[in-house]
Write a structure and sequence with these properties.
Layout lengths: L1 H16 L5 E10 L4 E6 L3 E2 L5 E2 L3 E6 L3 E3 L4 E3 L8 E6 L26 E5 L13 E5 L2 E5 L5 E4 L4 E4 L5 E5 L3 E4 L2 E4 L14 E5 L2 E4 L4 E2 L12 E2 L1
Parallel strand pairs: 14-17
Antiparallel strand pairs: 1-2, 1-8, 2-5, 3-4, 6-7, 8-9, 10-11, 11-12, 12-13, 13-14, 15-16, 17-18, 19-20
């Protein structure tokens, strides 16, 4: 009888625990960037004791947790597409009133309910790789790399700007266009003015490499005439 009582209590506990949701992998079904709300679903179905498999339901109006602070003046967001992985965190109390701006005790006594979750982006993209030494921000073909020695690299597969620890700046591109002080000009042709700050500034463009501080121009003209291209 004692064994039967223990088993009954254990079954009651397991039954109660089966209805408690904590954290689970999920995915985006759709996302509204204007409201920062998503429709999500759990990534895996639930299997009951009788062997029946329940497909994960869609959960609507789920807040997406992006890094934000400074009274909302500072934030880091990115696009979310259907199928993107998220970590779903189920809250201890009903969020219905809280999401409407109320900080009163919830009217609904539910706890750890599927409908009271937030989505944290990330947690499972097979195309995401880590970097053992550098901080890397990427979007499509664009990326920003921060190295521990102080080097900063902005660029894509064709052009880039590198600032090394000594403050030297290197520009690389198939062409480099400058818009400054209301003037627009191309570094590989004449005209206009450009001001860059650095101990040394090298430019690589159109297969040519030259230093902005120490270089010569071809086909120079006297007076206010325009010069030719820089001579590497």
């Amino acid at each position: 009888m004692f064994t039967s009582l223990v088993e009954s209590i254990q079954l009651m506990i397991e039954s109660s625990l089966s209805d408690i949701n904590t954290n689970a992998p999920g995915e985006i079904v759709s996302y509204n960037a204007a409201t920062n709300r998503a429709v999500v679903k759990l990534s895996t179905p639930k299997k009951l004791d009788n062997g029946e498999v329940l497909e994960p339901p869609k959960i609507v109006e789920v807040p997406v947790v992006f890094n934000a602070s400074g009274g909302g003046n500072a934030s880091f967001t990115f696009p979310l597409k259907p199928g993107d992985p998220v970590t779903l965190s189920f809250q201890q109390r009903s969020m219905e009133g809280y999401l409407k701006g109320s900080k009163d005790a919830p009217d609904d006594p539910r706890q750890f309910d599927l409908s009271d979750c937030v989505a944290i982006p990330g947690g499972g993209h097979t195309g995401t790789v880590g970097h053992s030494d550098n901080v890397v921000l990427k979007f499509g073909g664009a990326n920003v790399t921060l190295k521990p020695d102080g080097t900063i690299i902005f660029g894509n597969s064709i052009g880039s700007m590198t600032i090394d620890p000594g403050g030297n700046i290197r520009l690389k591109g198939s062409s480099i266009h400058v818009d400054a002080g209301g003037q627009q000009f191309d570094l590989m042709s004449a005209g206009g003015q450009m001001k860059l700050k650095g101990n040394s500034i090298d430019v690589e463009a159109g297969g040519k490499n030259f230093n902005l501080e120490h270089h010569q121009h071809l086909n120079t003209m006297p007076g206010v005439g325009l010069s030719g291209e820089p001579n590497p």
